[in-house]
Amino acid sequence: MARKQASVSYEVIKGLWDENPVLRSLLGLCPTLAVTNSAINGLAMGLATTFVLITSSIIISSVRNIIPNQVRISSFIVVIAAFVTVADRFLAAFYPLISKDLGPYVPLIVVNCIILGRQEAFSAKNSVFRSLLDSSGMSLGFILVLLALGMVREILGSGTLFGITVLGDWFDPWMMMILPPGAFLGLGIFIALANWLNARRAKA
Amino acid sequence: MKLILLFISAAVINNFVLSYFLGICPFVGVSKKISSALSMGMAVTFVMTITAVVTWLIYHLILVPANLEILEYVSFILVISALVQLVEMFVKKVSKPLYETLGIYLPLITTNCAILGLALFSVLRDYEFMESLIFGIGAGAGFTLAIVIMAGIREELELAKVPKPFEGAGITMIVAASLALAFMGFAGLISV
Asked: What is the pLDDT of residue A2?
């Protein structure tokens, strides 16, 4: 293997910042923008994606030597789609309200580039254990961004947090933040902030 | 009449990129030049139209009669990736110049969430066959419109001074925000 084996703990930590899927690699932008109009939706989406990412990483890394190279992408997609169906049915059965809010964005996890990207870049070449660490780290990084963006947008856009009013009557909700423009604006500022922090850290 | 309204609704009011956030990856990745943005938009419209027809047929003629709706996602994504490959071979055989223009963008369309999103929306909203077809064309036109406008703005941005941290993806998002705000002006024009 050309790539140097990283330490076990680094496999998890890298997903949080150094290789954060959203802020650094710009993957999975569609769900990040679409479902972060409230903190709870962001969290639910993050957890659903985590489930799919971790389970499909385990399956794919354990059968990585059997899959012929030419059909690997299609095979990955079928495994991912199967787990997405599981996640979708689970949400619809136990959390119908959230499932209704997220709408078609749950089945769209199938084409979330973070998941396919990690299978191609990592699980297809590494052991089950390392893939498990890698996918947990990546999911955690994804959840953190979704949650942070969801919280910011919910506070500014409706003055609440997880549905509880945090800003009093004096606050005039900034409606735009929970609508599409707010999503682009929020993510743009988040990405710039991450770049700025990274540049500062590199200098120090 | 209803079909015309549906087309307008899919193209501008509920623009796939700016109000459903579908197809953000090519929107950010292939919007540096107007010419390549236009090719991408055409390729997506082409695939979307065919996908709308084929997934409608599969869902209503195979999955529903066989009571296999649970296989919806698996079959849709397989069909889309096969379709993209077919389209690629077909375009290569029929029109060499078009194939060269679309080039690398064609295979990339498989993982474009706008395509799968289109198939899911048309099942979710119970579209008839014709509605599904028009919805596909309209959504493709809307995608093309958004990505071409974006490319136009970004060509001008090349000359502007952008704060360092905002360079690249950051400023693209901010521009998209103002575009989305502008497209919100279409809301309430008609309701379908």
From this structure: 42
